[in-house]
Design a protein that fits this description.
The chain has about 850 residues and is α+β, with helices and mostly antiparallel strands. Helix content is about 20%, strand content about 30%. The strands form eight sheets. The protein has an eight-stranded parallel sheet, with helices on one face. Helix 14 packs across helix 16 (about 595-615), helix 15 (about 585-590) crosses helix 16 (about 595-615) and helix 16 packs parallel to helix 17.
Length: about 850
């Protein structure tokens, strides 16, 4: 017979965060999901709940999801008056009890934010932190038929409550008292995203019934020790009948081990030990090697029974900082230096916050295919679901994980707040600590920066919450994972970029020239290169909905990000660099040729990102990481994203794909020292081939050629002066300007012994501003490759610049490249959805005429 003490202890174990979810649920006698179709209604604030429920206007709502997401599904969101924080809502769901006996708990993975849960008329839970799991004991409340009601109370009283004054103001959000609420800033930051705050059961709900065994603590620490894998296990738990198990049975791939169980102080049992897997294949980021994983399963020997506890995938890797110096942040994986490159992750659904595993996996595939090896989850956004981290483990993508704090003076000294944060941190780290992708833990985003930028001594922003409390949580769970107290931090001032971790927007918001990316001596940019990136035509068509496109219409401007209180937005930033790169009058261009403006904007931001990454990735650079702000737009339009809000690549995606490739070559302009050609090989195997450089006129005539054999060890790089490769002075960068430039383009290829082109790059010495022709003779023919893929052979009569392939339903392997006469390009197109006939067109930035693709009747 269950006692209330048993039931409450069961619920408490579930929410304290000491056990990864797969094992917490693996020991349950039964798990019943309550996700699916619920009902929701708005209530008048301040009314008694009983009469209000009887009079409520109930409408359908998906769970997991938010109020804004439910309104969107009903077609009401655009007509809604907003201000969801000032209103009250209820959700309800009826479900059968199914004869539950013994201890049981309702588990809520995410409730946003001030929430009371009622089961059969009894309040079972009050919650005030959307970032943590909550559990309520319900064994004595469940009936045959049950009604669960979630009351999401107005946050207005909390936001307007008189509180101690913060040490510094913030302009990130309108309500400064948000620092007291553990709720998402997404939807509450003006100028960033749709203004729909998270309200509702945004993560799953389920009923758990207690099994024979309850786990109270489980740490799994896989590490690489020499050539072996070692898993350290620390487990505590209780058996329902009070017995102590004989042993813990551990299986890792084909390796079996038995660890002895012993009574624990205070009751229950514990298991401490480690299992060695000889010659285990290590886990690598995808650019350095193969992300090998191993199946781990745990079971208890209990009398004559074997009780399955659950299973997980683990990877053996060793992660460390390259230098112990506080101002030299860089990572080393399995003994090899790694240049971290990628972007700051953004959720797919910023309104409903609904998770779609297939969509997450698709987008992470784009990340890997672009050569990106790291994603950062910024403290201004959300924690992700387990399947996000599963996919990063599988694909070999490193994860920099912030705790969800950003830009504000958080009340770490408040006891209730501190306890919420402690549970939140333990729950997060229980989910992450054993994952090979988990590579950096960070206390917050821009807290130290905001304090310092308000003119306060840097120490004011170095709060104990981030410098000690959360750091200690990381040390308990994952002592091998580097901890960063704040992003940015380090150096004399946290926002200086030549020490520690930086947010670099010199090239970008601060309108600095490209040379600043080199001269600033960036060490590690955990945010960088924010521009208004114009999406492709499909996205613009959806945005304008049949209206005439305009770059200054309210519809367009709504999707352009801006910082609160500033007199500019990020399309102004992009416009500045269009003028710098192309030497044109942007205002006149927007007035007369909107489509031309969009075309130049796509290329301008792509070129700046590609060249900046090239400068930072060069051998002589002190930089060891660069993460673009953002991966994906938070709403339709020309946002910061490398992908649009639907997850489709923008132009900048292909520029970054070339810059981030594990095997890459690229030029840097060294001024009077000419062009320099860099070769980088991040793969483990050595790279050997023939390096060829060619100088061409716009009609394809060759004015210079040079080549040499090259061999680059795994994880290494080399660089070559182009003049030295040519064997003569040719003013390759057009720095001396002794008359007209003799060549329109410089090309380089790294050709392997079998004739395969391992990498290629191009440089325009006279800059990007070339004459606009009516037609450059661009043409292409395709041939099918099977499974819906096609190969395009692209040629041009004259030099074609930044050739764009547009093919609905297909994803090109490369895009926005130059095609020189006599040196065509071959590009593979793969289906990006259901198989369909190929209908594609080509256009060059320096030509008005578009070209179709000859499918030879195969389309």
């Amino acid at each position: 017979m269950e006692t209330m003490t048993d039931s409450r202890q069961f619920a408490r174990n579930l929410e304290q965060g000491g056990v990864p979810a797969a094992f917490a649920e693996g020991t349950a006698a039964r798990v019943t999901s309550l996700d699916g179709e619920w009902e929701f209604a708005e209530l008048a604030p301040g009314r008694d709940l009983g009469p209000a429920l009887a009079e409520a206007r109930w409408r359908p709502a998906p769970v997991p999801g938010t109020v804004a997401g439910a309104m969107r599904a009903l077609g009401d969101l655009q007509q809604d008056r907003g201000d969801l924080d000032e209103r009250e809502f209820v959700y309800r769901r009826r479900f059968p009890g199914r004869g539950v006996a013994g201890s049981a708990a309702l588990v809520f993975d995410g409730l946003a934010t001030l929430t009371d849960a009622w089961l059969n008329g009894r309040r079972i839970l009050s919650a005030r932190n959307m970032f943590r799991r909550h559990a309520a004991a319900v064994g004595d409340v469940l009936g045959v038929d049950n009604e669960l009601v979630l009351h999401f109370r107005s946050a207005d009283a909390e936001l307007t409550r008189k509180r101690p004054r913060a040490k510094w103001p913030t302009r990130l959000v309108r309500h400064r008292n948000l620092r007291y609420l553990r709720t998402a800033l997404l939807g509450r930051i003006p100028g960033w995203a749709p203004a729909h705050p998270a309200v509702g059961p945004w993560r799953g709900v389920r009923l758990l019934e207690q099994g024979k065994v309850t786990l109270t603590q489980l740490l799994i620490r896989p590490v690489l020790d020499g050539g072996d894998g070692v898993v350290s296990i620390a487990l505590q738990g209780r058996v329902a009948d009070g017995r102590t198990p004989a042993a813990l049975k551990v299986r890792i791939s084909d390796c079996f081990a038995t660890l002895r169980a012993a009574p624990a102080a205070g009751g229950g049992f514990q298991v401490l030990g480690e299992v060695r897997v000889p010659a285990a294949a290590p886990w690598w980021p995808h650019d350095l090697g193969s992300p090998e994983r191993h199946a781990l399963s745990l079971a208890l020997e209990l009398g004559g029974d074997v009780v399955d506890l659950g299973s997980a995938q683990v990877g053996f890797r060793r992660i460390e900082r390259q230098s112990a110096g506080p101002d030299d942040f860089a990572l080393k994986i399995n003994g090899r230096d790694v240049f971290c490159r990628g972007a700051c992750w953004t959720p797919a659904d910023t309104v409903g916050l609904r998770d779609d595993p297939a969509e997450v996996r698709r987008v992470l595939g784009l990340v890997r295919d672009a050569g990106m090896n790291m994603l950062r989850l910024s403290g201004a956004l959300l924690y992700e679901s387990d399947f996000f981290y599963d996919a990063c483990d599988e694909l070999g993508i490193l994860v920099w994980q912030d705790f969800m704090f950003a830009s504000m003076d958080y009340p770490g000294e408040d006891a209730e707040f501190a306890e919420e944060v402690r549970i939140e941190a333990d729950q997060l780290l229980a989910r992450l600590h054993h994952r090979p992708c988990f590579s950096v833990l960070c206390g917050n985003s821009e807290v130290e920066q905001q304090a310092a930028m308000n003119g306060l001594p840097p120490a004011v922003g170095m709060a104990r919450l981030f410098r000690h409390t959360l750091k200690e949580a990381g040390s308990r769970w994952c002592p091998d994972v580097p901890y960063v107290p704040s992003s940015p931090s380090g150096g004399a001032l946290p926002f200086h970029v030549d020490a520690g971790v930086a947010h670099y927007f010199g090239v970008g918001a601060y309108l600095r020239p490209l040379a600043d990316a080199r001269e600033s001596r960036v060490r590690f940019a955990s945010e960088c290169l924010a521009f208004s990136n114009v999406p492709e035509d499909a996205s613009l068509d959806e945005l304008f909905g049949g209206e005439t496109r305009g770059a200054h219409t309210p519809r367009y401007k709504h999707g352009v990000p801006r910082d609160a209180g500033s007199g500019w937005d990020f399309s102004d930033v992009t416009d500045h660099y269009i003028e710098q790169l192309f030497g044109c009058d942007v205002r006149a261009l927007r007035y007369a040729e909107t489509e031309r403006y969009f075309a130049l904007a796509r290329v301008a931001t792509g070129v700046l990102m590609e060249r900046s990454i090239g400068l930072w990735r060069a051998e002589e650079s002190p930089c060891r990481g660069a993460l673009v702000w953002f991966l994906r737009d938070l709403q339709p339009g020309s946002g910061w994203g490398v992908l649009d809000s639907a997850g489709r690549p923008k132009a900048v995606y292909w520029f970054l794909k070339r810059a981030c490739a594990p095997r890459a070559i690229w030029f840097t302009d060294e001024g009077l020292n000419g062009l320099r050609l860099h070769v980088r090989n991040d793969r483990a195997a050595p790279l050997a081939g023939r390096l060829r450089v060619c100088l061409l006129r716009s009609n394809g005539a060759e004015t210079g050629r040079g080549e040499t054999d090259v061999s680059v060890a795994g994880g290494d790089g080399r660089s070559f002066g182009v003049d030295a490769l040519l064997g003569r002075f040719a003013d390759t960068a057009y720095a001396y300007r002794f008359g007209p430039c003799e060549h329109a383009i410089v090309t380089a290829e790294l050709v392997l012994a079998d004739g395969t082109i391992a990498a290629a790059c191009q440089f325009l010495p006279a800059g990007l501003g070339h004459a606009l022709h009516e037609d450059v003779g661009l043409r292409a023919a395709s041939r099918p490759l099977g499974r819906g893929a096609h190969e395009l052979r692209i040629e041009s009569r004259e030099l074609a610049l930044f050739v764009r392939i547009s093919a609905d339903g297909f994803l090109p392997a490369d895009n926005y490249f130059h095609v020189a006469p006599g040196a065509g390009r071959t590009v593979v197109l793969v289906p990006d959805g259901p198989e369909r006939p190929l209908q594609a067109r080509l256009e060059a930035l320096n030509a008005r005429a578009r070209a179709g693709v000859d499918t030879g009747g195969q389309g």
